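We close this part of the discussion by returning to an individual protein. Part of our work consisted of pairing the sequence of a single chain with a tokenised description of its backbone. What the numbers capture is local backbone geometry rather than side-chain detail. The amino acid sequence and the backbone structure tokens for this protein are reproduced below.
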Amino acid sequence: MIWDAILARMTILQFVATLGAVQGALLLALVALRFRRAQNYPLALLLLVYSLRMGTIPAWNPQTMVAFRWMLPLTTPLPFLFGPLLWWFAHELSNDTGIRTTPRILLHFVPYALDVLFTTAIAVTMSNAAYAAMFASIFAGEPPLHLIIRNAGKVVVNVTYVTLAVRLAFRRRPAAEATPHQRMWLRWLVVTPIVSLALFAFVALVPAASARLARGEATPFVLLSAAMALLIYVFSFLMVLAPEVPSGTSRLPGGVARYRRGASDIDKGEYADIAGKVETMLTAGAYRDPDLSLDSMAKMVGIHPSKLSHAINHEFGRSFPALIGRRRVDAFLEAAQKGELRDRSILDLAFDVGFSSKSTFNRVFKAATGESPTQFRERARSAHDVR
């Protein structure tokens, strides 16, 4: 009778984890097929990581982990990705200038990479007896010190990045280009994982949790799987409620709806033609006009603003404000590289490339480069003796 109860509870764990993993995989397919935009890369990766981790939670038992050594480096480092990917996508939602995929971005995933290397080394170098003994001690409630340190690191990393994401979601002055639906996405995105983070901290930092799991007491892990699955269902709900956010067709300031038809509804060659005209205008310096807007550029191109917005999103992978902001930052950096900051102030050069205010320039510049304009100038002075 006791074993029947244990098996029934373990079946619940497998069911909840598998259900969440399948839902995450379906949602990942939806993002890949319908919402293929650069700004959704962290969302797709987050869904992939969550689905993979949920699908392998039932494998956290001594028999499976010892029999399949590759499970250790494949699954246990994954929690290091939760927080950074969540923060990355929150940044994309809160600031339309986006974050470029550069080595600077990869630095946020160094803890994950280090843990993969460490766990791979353990799986490859340990003898069979030592490896089995290690998992026997883990599921006896006496984990090795390195596991405690690694789990504590996962909790610290996730708490740090979720805190940063919460600050983005609830800051007093949201980005001007953020729509109500974007802010709704952002706030649900950062609030929902808090429960799963707390439950993960419990099963990661309390050795007795794994010991109880070995005895068939799977309740903490069932709750963790359910909380992680909840995040997946929140994403599903948000995509149904506000699909214009991941598709990049949010409403513009002033209530003018962006073009919302899919790429199949318009000839892709027309997108390329529109993008070519936009690129020609930007190369000629149109971005230097501080009054440049979607409407004014649409008049110059000769199309409806909503159509121009959708074409820019499709061809450039970012919104109109993000595209113009990026071009202005690039122009600023190019001018600085030529030495124009020797005799001019930062703000003077920022106005020259089209920024209309100091606050906008500071925000866009830091989002694009990862440092403030002042920090950039100090670094440039140190490297090139710019005065």
